[in-house]
Amino acid sequence: MGLQIYTPYICNITAISQGQETVVTFALPHSFVDGSLVAFSIPQAYGMRQLDGLKGYVVTTSEFAIMVTIDSTEFDPFFVPSVPSNVVLDPALAIPAGDANSGYLAPGAVQPTYQTIPGAYLPTVL
Question: What does the alpha-carbon distance between residue 34 and residue 88 come to, in Å, rounded to a whole number?
């Protein structure tokens, strides 16, 4: 059996609206579907720190955006910081919260019970 490496599915955020339901826009097309549970990681440099660590369900999707069930009307605005090219900045991310690594824990280990929420995202072929 070959080496199995788990790579989580993440999307870099380019914009977030403020409203009773929050619209999150991505740099590239995403694979989230309606009903997905999504968690957010928002570094301090991007503003809207109130969203960091929150989870919300996807209500609607388009090719580059999702609308989630989080009321962000009172949150600080989101912005993409301008930094010099030699500065590395952690991106703002949306991460499927319902998916889990279903690989083996160690060679010869017992296959774990699947701990997933079906439909957290559509699988993509690279």
Answer: 33
Beta bridge partners of 47: 78
* pTM as predicted: 0.72
One pLDDT digit (tens) per residue for the chain, 126 residues: 555 555 556 789 999 999 999 999 999 888 888 888 899 999 999 999 999 999 999 999 999 999 999 999 999 999 999 988 888 888 999 988 864 444 444 444 455 454 444 445 454 444
Length of the chain: 126
Q: Where are the beta strands (DSSP E) in the chain?
A: 11-16, 22-26, 37-41, 55-61, 65-68, 93-96
Q: Give the residue numbers spanning the domain of 24.
A: 17-79+88-96
- DSSP label of 74: T
**Assigned domain for 54 exists:** yes
